[in-house]
Amino acid sequence: MRPYVDGRHAAEDDAVPADDQWYPEPGSLRRQLGLSQPAMAELLHVPVATWRNWEQSRVRLDPAVKTLLRVVLREPDAVRRALAGQAA
């Protein structure tokens, strides 16, 4: 999977290119958490189709999604608490 990099924005704001940012593969993360695809999508308040696209590499993950995946990996309970009660 080729990482998402928008060279204009990286150059403009001195951001670290996506190549230098490790993130967990969506499917591996979901399995590690013991969740089904619908449950993972519900946890993150995204449509199941969106999660499946991420997991099956149908779309490039943008930097915000990669960051979200890293946060979920490191602090899944904090993500659950932070997103609890929000409308999907």
Question: How would you describe what is shown here?
Answer:
The structure is a single chain. The protein is mainly α and 88 residues long. It has a domain at 25-83: Orthogonal Bundle (434 Repressor (Amino-terminal Domain)), CATH 1.10.260. The protein is built from 6 helices and no strands. α3 packs across α4 and α5 crosses α6 (76-83). The chain is globular, with a radius of gyration of 14 Å.
Give the number of helices: 6
Count the strands? 0
pLDDT < 50 runs, ≥5 residues: 8-12
CATH level-3 fold name of the domain at 25-83: 434 Repressor (Amino-terminal Domain)
CATH architecture descriptor name of the domain at 25-83:
Orthogonal Bundle
Strand content: under 5%
Main sheet makeup: none
Using only C-alpha atoms, the radius of gyration works out to 14 Å
Q: Mean pLDDT, as a whole number? A: 82
The helix/strand series, from N terminus to C terminus, equals HHHHHH
**What is the C-level CATH assignment of the domain at 25-83?**
Mainly Alpha
* Structural class by secondary-structure content: mainly alpha
Overall geometry comes to: globular
Show the helix and strand layout.
Blueprint: H1 7-13, H2 26-33, H3 37-44, H4 48-55, H5 63-74, H6 76-83
